[in-house]
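[step 3/7] inverse_fold.run input=structure_tokens len=303
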């Protein structure tokens, strides 16, 4: 009898004593009476002492059985308590959640959402990792990742949080100094704030015609917040999600360049290892983020 088999037999023995018989214990545990009796006999053989005095209709505990029952009952109670502790984690939003996002999106959108989430669920602890590198969720033991673009790993699940337009933009200062491109081809003549996640060759749909324009610039960044700062400083054109600069466009501080040209939309996903959504805390946060981001309009907002 292995250690695991012995523990199982101990729990069965405790159930037999508490329920007053083999048949009652078998019914509650979903086992046959013969299986329960077999487990007790194996346990007695392992211990080398009888635990029960059996009769045709009844049983009583031996002295060894009485002493042994106390230990078996403790194990059964601990197992039940452990199960309930796990069920609480499954049924109620408590415990720790680890989440990762890019620095820009995390600071701009995800951290404020997490702040509001913890106001609602103070029993949840949040461990936030902001990085512009693609983090190995499974390898790092992270529950949720916020990512743009399609999912590549078959080990992960995802759902789309929102989708938004990206546009070409320039600061009003840059426009006053250099002027605006009037055709897609003139984009190549302008200086650009280059972003590592956007290809150097832009693929545009302008008046139903596809255009491929190669662009370059004297400023290159790998962080979306830095891209915005250089854009605002007038260092060149940039491709940005509309929501990042919607208010500035409305004020006239930033100009939407070639509004008749469309870029591929930006899609933002919540990504997570398979199975984590069985936890109430994870499901609650995913639902909360979905509600918080559902009003982002594809034409005006994004991350």
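[step 3/7] decode complete -> sequence:
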């Amino acid at each position: 009898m292995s250690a695991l088999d012995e523990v199982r037999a101990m729990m069965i023995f405790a159930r037999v004593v508490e329920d007053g018989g083999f048949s009652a214990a078998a019914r509650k545990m979903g086992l046959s009476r013969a299986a329960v009796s077999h487990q007790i006999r194996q346990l007695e053989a392992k211990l080398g002492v009888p635990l029960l005095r059996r009769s045709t209709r009844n049983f009583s505990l031996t002295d060894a059985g009485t002493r042994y029952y106390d230990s078996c009952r403790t194990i059964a109670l601990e197992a039940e308590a452990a199960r309930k502790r796990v069920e609480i984690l499954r049924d109620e939003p408590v415990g720790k959640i680890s989440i990762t996002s890019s620095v820009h999106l995390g600071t701009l959108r995800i951290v404020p959402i997490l702040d509001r989430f913890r106001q609602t669920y103070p029993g949840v602890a949040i461990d936030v990792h902001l990085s512009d590198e693609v983090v190995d969720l499974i390898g790092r033991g992270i529950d949720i990742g916020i990512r743009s673009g399609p999912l590549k790993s078959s080990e992960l699940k995802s759902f789309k949080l929102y989708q938004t337009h990206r546009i070409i933009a320039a600061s009003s200062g840059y426009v006053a100094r250099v002027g605006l491109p009037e055709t897609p081809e003139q984009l190549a003549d302008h200086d650009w704030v280059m972003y590592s996640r956007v290809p150097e060759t832009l693929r545009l749909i302008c008046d139903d015609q596809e255009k491929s324009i190669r662009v370059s610039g004297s400023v290159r960044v790998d962080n979306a917040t830095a891209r915005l700062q250089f854009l605002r400083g007038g260092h060149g054109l940039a491709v940005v999600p509309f929501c990042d600069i919607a208010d500035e466009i409305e004020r006239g501080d930033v100009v939407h360049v070639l509004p008749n040209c469309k870029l591929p939309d930006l899609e933002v996903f919540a990504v997570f290892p398979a199975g984590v959504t069985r936890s109430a805390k994870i499901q609650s946060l995913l639902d909360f983020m979905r509600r918080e981001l559902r009003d982002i309009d594809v034409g005006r907002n994004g991350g």
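[step 4/7] annotate
The mean pLDDT is 87.
DSSP finds ten helices and 15 strands in the chain.
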